[in-house]
Amino acid sequence: MAINPISTPLPADLPENWQTGQTVAPEGSDVGLSEQYGYNYQSKQINDAQKAVNTIGAQFPNLYGKGDTVQVSDGGTGGKTAAEALLNLGAQPGFNFLVNSRFAYNGRNQQSYAAQAWTVDGWFSPSGSATITLPGGVTVTNAIAVAQPIQQYEQLFGKQATFSAKDMDAIYTVTATMPNSAQGTDSQIAAQATPWGDIAIWNISSLSAFAVVISVSSAATLEAAKLELGTTSTLAADLAQGQDEAIEQLRLDLYDFDPGRPAWILTQNESLLDNAYFVGGGSQQGGGQLPVNQKGQTSYTSAGYGVDRWLAAGSGISVLISDQYIEVSHTGTTSGELQQRIPLTGMQNGAYTFSVLTPENLYAVSGNLDFSSSEFSFSKQLPNSSNIDIRMKTSDKEGGFFTVRWISVNPNSVSLIAAKLELGSRSTLARLVDGEWVLNDPPPNFQQELAKCQRYSLVLRSDHTGSRICVGLGKASNATNCFVFVSTPVSIRKTPVVSFSGTFVLYEQGAVSTSDLTVSSMTVTSYTSNGITLNITSSGLTAGTTYQLWSTAPDAQILLEADL
């Protein structure tokens, strides 16, 4: 309760019933009247009234006037707008139905986008083009629009909602009573003009859902947007409070309207590729460095399998292994490609995504795959480079396999950090952190990747020191053939094709003195879950005698290939 500034009583009892013939005297009693009739009493009351008026006037500088902001401590709201008042009085800003409402996430990492495309995460450009300038906002040009479908649109049925958008100068709002259902036809629910265009809430027929649309007739830089329940915008309160980046990122990860967006989700999908982490310099160094590279070369200069499980194809193709990536290049005008073939066994129909990470960007292609079809293909042409794309394709070779491919014509060189094939319609390979791409998954376990690769290709070699290494044991069937069983660390996928290099010999087991019998050829006759049987051709063998197969040179190796 306010304090009365008037401390002197003002009885307001001066007589108002004077009669003709009554005499004024200093005191009323002097003429037989009451005290109030004396002019000294009346003068005192007049002076007291003037003092009271002066006291009231002295209080005016302490009072709030029109246009003043009344602080909460003085009984006001502390704000000039409803949003500021809500914030100052402790009210929580309304829930924002929009994701990426500050235009801060740009997972595709492009600076401009063409028509009919997803742009910054969660926002779609129906027409024209958009130029992205982050982190200051999204600049929209060329008389276009950016729109976002609303995921939880059922919560808006029949309720009042407010959509607001902020440019660099002001916040513009539009309020509408939402329909009781999302319609199957395009229709504008409400719109509000702005200096650069208009903002609107729409029914979107293709989604049977609501969407917000920001249309631009002249260039505008948008900094924030919000769709919320109620008739008052609390966007200013959101901006004053700041944004919880972790919650915003999580909401983006759960947003389904934009399946191509490279998102980071807390539970990573399993990769269906083998040996697809290309950082480390290669296993030929020893010590378990990725990628698995059993053949041991640091560069491969012709088409065929080089780095385990990856097939190079094209004119003048070459693959170079460096510490931070593998570099794939080719000569000529025909395309060069790096591909991995995956057996169709166990593959189920559904959505799949193949993605690759380069030092510059993350690229992904998604598609709903039907493995009952004899042939299908999905490809994605990469932005700003019309002659590069990534593809997924089937083949009926050996009962069917599935191929993921990186294809390049011009430029004729690409550097690959990692790749991933996964279930679902989005990539979980990497995310942007402070403008840098970061892999979501940790590097794979080397031994597991090696075991997976050895099912398709297995290299048996000496210890690179020149020591004699016993590879296997078997009996001679005649003077020129010996069948030797060689243990393998994994179950090879099928009967492999064998080739060898360096010097291998047969040595009679248990003999006190014997000479090496040089191996001239090897073929695989059978395979089991734990090894293969080699038919070794030599000369001077004794039928029924047991022989050991030895490598005798540092570079000696046997290559067993069962690749697709």
Report on the structure:
α2 (82-88) crosses α3 (235-241). The protein has 5 helices and 36 strands. It folds into 4 domains: 1-63; 112-253, no CATH class; 283-453, no CATH class; 455-561. It is elongated and about 165 Å long. Strands 1, 2, 3, 4, 7, 8, 9 and 10 form an 8-stranded antiparallel β-sheet that branches. It has a 7-stranded antiparallel β-sheet with strand order 32-31-35-28-29-34-33, with no helix packed on it. The chain has a 6-stranded antiparallel β-sheet with strand order 13-14-17-22-21-20, with no helix packed on it. The chain has 564 residues and is mainly β. β15 (318-321) and β16 form a beta hairpin.
Summarize the structure.
This protein is mostly beta strands and 564 residues long.
Structural class: mainly beta
Helix count, DSSP H or I runs of 4 or more residues: 5
Shape: elongated
Low-confidence stretches: none
Largest sheet: 8 strands, antiparallel
Give the CA-CA distance, first to last residue. Answer: 88 Å
Q: How many structural domains does the protein architecture include?
A: 4
Pick out its properties.
single chain, 36 strands, 4 domains, mainly beta, 5 helices, seven-stranded antiparallel sheet
What layout of secondary structure does this protein have?
Layout: H1 39-59, H2 82-88, E1 112-113, E2 117-118, E3 124-133, E4 137-149, E5 160-166, E6 171-177, E7 187-194, E8 197-204, E9 209-216, E10 220-222, E11 224-229, H3 235-241, H4 245-253, E12 299-300, E13 304-305, E14 311-314, E15 318-321, E16 326-329, E17 336-343, E18 350-357, E19 362-369, E20 377-381, E21 388-395, E22 401-408, E23 413-416, E24 418-423, E25 430-433, E26 436-439, H5 446-454, E27 457-461, E28 469-476, E29 481-487, E30 497-501, E31 504-508, E32 517-518, E33 521-528, E34 531-537, E35 546-551, E36 557-561
Antiparallel strand pairs: 1-3, 2-3, 3-4, 4-9, 4-10, 5-6, 5-11, 7-8, 8-9, 12-15, 13-14, 14-17, 15-16, 16-23, 17-22, 18-19, 18-24, 20-21, 21-22, 25-26, 27-36, 28-29, 28-35, 29-34, 30-36, 31-32, 31-35, 33-34
Helix pairs in contact: 2-3
